[in-house]
Amino acid sequence: MKSPGLYSILFLAGMVIAGAGFSSCQINVAPDDRIVIDPPRNVTVVPGANETEIYWNHHWSRNIIGYRIYRSRSYDGRYTYLGSTGRDYFVDHTSINGRLYYYAVSGYDSRGNETDLSTESAYTIPRPEGYDVLMRDFRIQPDRAGFEFATATLGPYDDLYTDIFYDNSNGYHYMNVWDDTDIRDMGYTNSIKDIRYAPSSGWSPTKDVILKYGHTYVVWTYDNHFAKFRVIELGPGYVVFDWAYQTLQGEPLLKRDVTAKGERKLQSKKYDIGYE
After folding, report:
1. Per-residue pLDDT tens for 100-149?
2. Domain at 116, CATH number
């Protein structure tokens, strides 16, 4: 069970001892003034770059005047107090990229009484992110047509460590990966943060996707990391995107064989990579 701090109050009223018997009296309590013992609900977390956003539902009782936020390295572990707020969200600026954190929230009243901690398994792993990356067609500017998530750098499209590279041909914008990497279109999103988890299937069999404004794409890199990017602008021979990269490697059971370092090949491509 999660800990610390909880309170429960036994409320006994109207019991009057009278000889061998007793009598009772009626006390009316407004619904909103009931003793509060249930914790905040629907706690969710959104990872960022060395920070985590925590959200929850506003508590139903007017007795609750604020919330306390706690963090642990495991669900059943010891939760450390982070801070308090009167709002329905909190930002943890002390989280570190690549580390797993669990979060819990309690409510408290004007007397300092505190509810149980929330029961949801609200966990996340902060990861680096970036914005407004401009990438050009590999035929026009090959030395800046590729992007590596681990180092957040543009480079040659055919570099050994390039994760994705851009191609503008036949009136379409494409993002390509090599045969040791996977990519999938997750559809239109309002924000790159809308996609919280990498899919387990649905990867492009042709190792490319057609880019569309506002769409977010997930990449499974050759060295077993997950990344995502969202298109924010498309133009003649270029694309601009935001991105995020998970520094913690995937679960070992999901790990694929990694191609030996050396020449990287494209699979089922629609053009010859050596085309001028």
Report:
1. 899 999 999 999 899 999 988 888 888 888 999 999 999 999 999 999 99
2. 2.60.40.10
Q: Whole domain around residue 72: which residue ranges?
A: 16-124
Contacts of 116 (CB under 8 A, 6+ apart): 2, 6, 37, 38, 39, 106
- 6 located within any domain: no
Backbone angles phi, psi at 112, to 5 degrees: 90, 0
| 49 and 145 fall within a common domain | no
How many domains is the chain partitioned into structurally?
Answer: 2
Pairing of strands 153-155, 129-136: unpaired
- Dump strand ranges (E) for the chain: 16-18, 21-23, 44-47, 52-55, 66-72, 80-85, 89-92, 101-108, 122-124, 129-136, 146-148, 153-155, 164-169, 172-176, 182-188, 208-210, 215-220, 226-235, 238-245
The pLDDT tens digits of the residues spanning 3-14 come to 444 333 322 233
pTM: 0.65
Closest listed residue to residue 39, CA positions, set 131, 98, 109, 90: 109
Share of the chain above pLDDT 70, in %: 77
